[in-house]
Amino acid sequence: MNITIRRVEPTDHEALHRLYSGRQVIWGTTQLPFPSLEMWRKRLAEPPEGIYGIVACVEGEVVGHLNIHTNPNRPRRQHAAGIGISVRDDFQGQGVGTALMQAALDVADNWLNVQRLELEVYTDNEPAVRLYQRAGFVIEGTLRQYSFRDGRYVDVYAMARFRPAGAPE
Fold this sequence. Notes:
The chain has helices at residues 13-19, 23-28, 37-45, 96-110, 126-134; strands spanning 3-7, 51-58, 61-69, 80-87, 116-122, 138-149, 152-162. By secondary structure, it is α+β, with helices and mostly antiparallel strands. It has a domain at 3-117: Aminopeptidase, CATH 3.40.630.30. A seven-stranded mixed beta sheet has the order 1-2-3-4-5-7-6, sandwiched between helices. The protein is globular and about 40 Å long. The mean pLDDT is 95.
């Protein structure tokens, strides 16, 4: 499968609406089910400062999304950024998440000067935890009853990755 990574565009709102309408995607995020198309149109048309979004495409179709959230207005946290990643239900387990993560690490390390990259992941989302560990993230702690999902409170791991030694400063 040929996966292409590119910057997210405002015209991707319909594709991201479809992606975030998937049951597995909602299960793995803190998003609410049944997102509106208009919400995605607005979010992509007017992105907040410090958000760098990329998408993964297969045969021109958006099948994955990743945001890097920097801290442009928090001087003491400018060395850190967070990420959020989702892969469309029918493309999970096929390398899309890996391709997005590799692109995000390149941007974070070589273009944004991020020293610390952070994320939260549900403790029962084992495939995502394995993806993040392969990318160099480590579990720093467990946040108990972090989110309400599917009728109950669930825990998340706080994970982080530091720029590897020898990477550009």
